[in-house]
Specification:
Elements: E1 2-4, E2 7-10, H1 22-31, E3 37-40, H2 44-53, E4 56-59, H3 67-70, H4 72-89, H5 96-108, H6 116-126, H7 135-145
Parallel strand pairs: 3-4
Antiparallel strand pairs: 1-2
Helix pairs in contact: 1-2
Protein name: ISXO2-like transposase domain protein
Domain ISXO2-like transposase: 3-108
Pfam family, one: DDE_Tnp_IS1595
Length: 146
C-alpha cells in the first residue's frame, strides 16, 4: 500500500504460497520500484527481500507504541477487503487472487467516479481481440490506433 499525506493512495494484493523470502521477493520484484521504502512487522523474510533488492526497510513490531499508527491504514484496508469478499462472494476461496485484484482495482480507482464509464468504454473499444468485428472493420480499427 502506498501512503501519501497520511492517507492510502494505491494498493496491490497477491496470494503467496508461504512467507519464506522467495514468495514475497517474487511479488516485490514485479510490483515495487527501487526507491520504495518497505515498512514491515519484523517478519525475517521481508528483511531478506529488502536487502536482496536494495530497498530501504524499517521494522515496527506489534508491541511498539507506534504500531497502531504505523499499520492503521493497512489494518483498515485488510478489514475492508475481508468485508468485500465476505459480502460479495460469501467467503468463497476458489478464486482468491481474482477477488483481491478486483478489490485493489476498485480501491485504486475510488476517486475516479466521474470518468469510470468513459474509461471502461475506452478499454472495451481498444481491447484485443475484437471477435465481433469484420476483417475490414478490424483493419480500420488498427489504422485508428496507430
Amino acid at each position: 500500500m502506498s501512503i501519501s499525506n497520511g492517507a492510502p493512495t494505491h494498493c496491490f494484493m497477491e496470494v503467496i504460497k508461504d512467507t519464506t523470502a522467495k514468495s514475497p521477493k517474487d511479488v516485490f520484484v514485479r510490483r515495487l520500484d527501487s526507491d520504495t521504502k518497505l515498512i514491515s512487522d519484523g517478519n525475517p523474510s521481508y528483511g531478506v527481500c529488502a536487502r536482496d533488492l536494495g530497498l530501504a526497510h524499517s521494522i515496527t513490531l506489534s508491541k511498539d507504541e507506534q504500531a497502531h499508527v504505523t499499520f492503521k491504514w493497512l489494518n483498515i484496508l485488510i478489514g475492508n477487503c475481508k468485508k468485500f469478499i465476505d459480502g460479495t462472494y460469501h467467503g468463497r476461496e476458489e478464486h482468491k487472487q481474482f477477488y483481491l485484484e478486483e478489490f485493489a482495482y476498485r480501491f485504486n480507482r475510488r476517486h475516479f467516479e466521474m470518468s469510470l464509464v468513459e474509461r471502461l468504454l475506452n478499454t472495451c473499444v481498444f481491447a484485443s481481440p475484437h471477435p465481433l468485428l469484420r476483417e475490414s472493420d478490424s483493419k480500420m480499427a488498427l489504422a485508428y490506433e496507430t
